[in-house]
């Protein structure tokens, strides 16, 4: 039973991390909490569902949904936040703008698509579990685990081994200095928004397949877990988001298995509070330097 609970926790944690990876990259580079991110999660799931219903294979629907969601994220970032950045508005302004946009987008999606649960057609993905020693896994769970690791590695490589990643890191450190060095910060922000939206789209498709329950508000619940993951791991740290997601998933699974499922959702946030008491910047975050 312990081995199965650990596997369940790792799968849940990978799902949380998968959602939070783009979220933490968005904060790390753009230095804002964009509350529309949860909508991108729902958007990716719906786009893949529509593509599958139109006859596209899942192997084509998933990347198409990710690319389309990335494009939507870039457009919304430009429409909602470009003017605020140009005017150097305070962070609270962007938070309130994205909060209003999120409420509008969720309400619009519900009015257009309805609030009923939608499901992928039967047989679109193999759901039959198979045994690996004392534990069982489904193919989708294995894909979630593999995708979370691959996406985290891919984002780290983009940040560390590409010119775009170097520009992202420079802008994260000091946007004004990056502009003085001749960097097109507007283009970097659009690329960052696209990457984050695509990551949210991938996570929406895979988690939608895992639970086979798609609703307009499915991203809202994941956003709460995403906040816990990025704060616990360290704001803006990709590796920290992966580790924190797995830690929260394991804590929830073990609590549900050996204590009570009633406390499952609370234990992750208790872990968050305890970590922040001991290390306010999160597990992998850097302490802020205050200058007089």
Description:
Helix 1 (2-30) crosses helix 9 (218-233). The model has no long low-confidence stretch (mean pLDDT 83). The N and C termini lie far apart (55 Å). The protein has a two-stranded antiparallel ribbon with strand order 1-2. With 292 residues, the protein is an all-alpha fold. Helix content is 74%, strand content 2%. It has one domain: ABC transporter involved in vitamin B12 uptake, BtuC.
Low-confidence stretches: none
Outline: globular
* Cα-to-Cα separation, first versus last residue: 55 Å
From the coordinates shown, what is the CATH architecture? Orthogonal Bundle
Observed structural traits:
mainly alpha; 2 strands; ABC transporter involved in vitamin B12 uptake, BtuC
Briefly characterize the structure.
This protein has helices spanning 2-30, 37-53, 58-86, 91-113, 139-161, 163-173, 175-180, 185-211, 218-233, 238-258, 264-278, and strands at residues 130-132, 135-137.
Provide the fold topology:
Blueprint: H1 2-30, H2 37-53, H3 58-86, H4 91-113, E1 130-132, E2 135-137, H5 139-161, H6 163-173, H7 175-180, H8 185-211, H9 218-233, H10 238-258, H11 264-278
Antiparallel strand pairs: 1-2
Helix pairs in contact: 1-5, 1-8, 1-9, 1-10, 2-3, 2-8, 2-9, 3-8, 5-6, 5-8, 6-8, 9-10, 9-11, 10-11
């Amino acid at each position: 039973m312990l081995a199965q609970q650990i596997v369940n926790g790792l799968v849940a944690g990978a799902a949380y991390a998968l959602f939070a990876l783009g979220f933490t990259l968005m904060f790390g580079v753009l230095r804002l909490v964009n509350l529309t991110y949860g909508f991108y999660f729902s958007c990716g799931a719906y786009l893949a569902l529509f593509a599958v219903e139109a006859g596209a294979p899942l192997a084509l629907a998933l990347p198409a949904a990710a690319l389309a969601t990335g494009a939507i994220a870039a457009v919304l970032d430009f429409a909602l936040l470009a003017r605020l950045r140009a005017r150097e508005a305070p962070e609270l302004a962007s938070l309130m703008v994205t909060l209003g946009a999120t409420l509008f987008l969720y309400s619009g999606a519900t009015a257009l698509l309805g609030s009923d649960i939608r499901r992928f057609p039967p047989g679109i993905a193999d759901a039959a579990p198979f045994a690996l020693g004392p534990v069982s896994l489904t193919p989708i769970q294995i894909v979630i685990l593999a995708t979370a690791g691959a996406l985290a590695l891919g984002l780290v490589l983009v940040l560390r081994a590409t010119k775009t990643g170097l520009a992202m890191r420079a802008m994260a450190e000091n946007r004004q200095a990056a502009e003085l060095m001749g960097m097109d910060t507007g283009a970097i922000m659009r690329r960052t928004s696209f990457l984050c939206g695509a990551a949210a789209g991938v996570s929406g498709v895979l988690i939608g397949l895992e639970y086979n329950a798609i609703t307009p508000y499915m991203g809202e619940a994941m956003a709460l877990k995403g906040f816990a993951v990025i704060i616990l791991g360290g704001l803006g740290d990709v590796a920290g988001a992966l580790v924190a997601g797995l830690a929260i998933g394991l804590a929830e699974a073990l609590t549900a298995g050996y204590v009570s499922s009633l406390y499952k959702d609370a234990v992750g946030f208790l872990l968050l509070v305890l970590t922040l008491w001991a290390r306010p910047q999160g597990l992998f975050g850097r302490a802020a330097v205050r200058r007089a």
